Structures are given as structure tokens and as C-alpha cells.
Amino acid sequence: MIWVTSYVDGEEYREPFSKGIISRSLNISYIGPQRAYELASEIEDELIKKGLVMISRDELADIVLDHLNRVNPKIAEKYKNLRLLRNSKKPLIILIGGASGVGTSSMAFELASRLRLKNIISTDMIREVMRKIVSNELSPVIHKSSYDAYKSIKIHSVKMDKIIEGFITQAEVVNLGVEAIIERSIKEGISIIIEGVHIIPGFINEDLMENNNIIMFSLSVDDEELHKQRFYLRCSQPWVKRSLEDYMDNFDSIRKIQDFLLEQAEFYDSHIINNLDINETINIMVSDILEKFVGVNDVK
After folding, report:
1. How many CB atoms lie within 10 A of CB 68?
2. Residue 170 neighbours by CB under 8 Å, 6+ apart
3. Would you state the pLDDT for residue 295?
4. pTM, whole model, 2 decimals?
5. 193 — pLDDT class (breaks 50, 70, 90)
6. What distance lies between CA 93 and its chain's CA centroid?
7. Average per-residue pLDDT in the chain?
């Protein structure tokens, strides 16, 4: 057995070498699970040939990087950059916004898996917590869905679409919770992904968004029929409580919200991704994160 050692708070601990762990870290570099496991097996054979029974985590990473350089320098570069990202002194805070049904929660889960991040929270969850704390009488707007929040407003503006007005009113309240989580993550050094319809370019404190470790994406589904198909798929899941009929009855409102989100994203130069293919979207996100976050003065 080969033991991998590392230090936590000055104390050494060890764990057995695992091809599974290595292959997952390699799969981050876009080579696919099968090829990643093959490379992990090759690396294990290399360690055995060298007669190693004990190796530090950093030494193992160097061996992995050398092996990848011999196989494919481009993969090696991606692996190196992702290691820099994971070793950053700053937490990585990723914000994923988009209208209902465009896949913000699915992309958050996949991105967390790719980057090996443990913390994900949705703005719907933040809103649900607020609902338990603040009564319907005090803040009726948070007790509605994003697309029918306008129903809680008694007097509407004559200058704004009522659906967008209701959504903005709700988002302004929910973003208090979003900003609190961001500030807490920065203070505690906790990397996190926050996703949901209430992630809107321009709504979060500018001082926070100036940090290079806070990265925002705006997802869309440009094709209306494909957007509808996403709701058919979502409502086929047993854990979804809202009916397909409810989504379809409010589909035009959902599309209006998407148009508003995209206008905001364009104005504030947020990265807009038409979320057609899950792998392509994730690869775009990872590349953008590495470009903005890796290589600055925050890595060890």
C-alpha cells in the first residue's frame, strides 16, 4: 500500500493512495471519467515501479503533473491551474443567475462536482428562510413566486411592467440574504456557489463584486420551445411540488424575467451563457473562472 501524507495545522496525517480520488481530480481537466481512471492507473504503476510506500501530497501532485505533461501538455496546464485554484488563499464565490427552468441548480451541482466545492445554496432557499422569519403581512412580496410577486404590490408603477416590478421588489429583499452569505463566506474563507433567479447583475453591492474571487454567470435558454421542455423534464421528477400547469400558465412571465435578466447582464457585462449543453456550459464556466481567478496574487 502507498500512503499519501499531508499536514493540517502542523499535524501530519496520512491516507491510502486512491485511484478514484486521482481520477476525479484528473476528470476536472475535461478528459472524461474512463480516460481519467486509465491515467490514474498509469500513475499508480509509476509509483509502484519507483518502490514508493510513502509520498507527500505535494510530491504526488508533481508526479501527476509530470505524467500529464508527457501525455498531453494542454491537459497538464489545466490540471495545474485547477490545483492553483484549490490552493488559493481566498474563497471562491460563484454566482449563477437565470430565469426559472434554465438550469441554474443543475449547473451549480455539476460545477461544484467539477471544482470539488462542497457548499451550494439557492436563492429560493434564502427566500424560504426569510419567509419563516418575516410574516406575509410585513413583506408579502417574498411569499410569492418570482413570476407572480407582482400580485403582492397594491399600487403599480405606470412606467414599468408589473411582472418585472414585482420581481425586482422581491429580488431586492432576497439580495440582502445573498449579500450576507457572500460577506460571511469572505470572512470565514468558505468557497460557495449561490444560484437562482435572484442573482441579478447590478443588484449586488459593487464593493463586493470588485473582488476577483466573486464570479457571476447569467444563464439563459434562448429557444422558447426548449425552455418549455426543461419544465416538462423538471416536473417529471418526484420531488418537484409545483405543477407543470403552473409553470406553463406563467411561462410568458418567466420569459419576461429572462429578458430583464439578460438586459441587466449585458449592461453590467456579466458573462451570458446560452445553456444548451451541460458539458459545454460547465467547460465555459471553468475556463472563465480559471482566467479570472488563477494566476493573480491570491495563490500560494
Report:
1. 22
2. 127, 141, 142, 144, 146, 149, 198
3. 53
4. 0.83
5. very high
6. 8
7. 89
Handedness of CA 26, 196, 256, 231 (dihedral sign): positive
Helix, strand and coil content of the chain, in percent to the nearest 5, comes to 55, 15, 30
Q: Phi and psi at residue 193, in whole multiples of 5°?
A: -115, 125
pLDDT score at 30: 59
Q: How many CB atoms lie within 10 A of CB 151?
A: 14
E strand segments, the chain: 3-8, 11-16, 54-56, 93-97, 120-122, 192-196, 214-220, 271-274
Which residue in this structure is represented by grid cell 499536514?
Answer: 7
Q: What is the pLDDT of residue 298?
A: 46
d(CA 144, CA 73): 52
CA atoms within 13 A on the CB side of 38: 7
Residues facing residue 120 across a β-bridge: 193
Specify the pLDDT at position 113. 85
Mean pLDDT of 5-10: 79
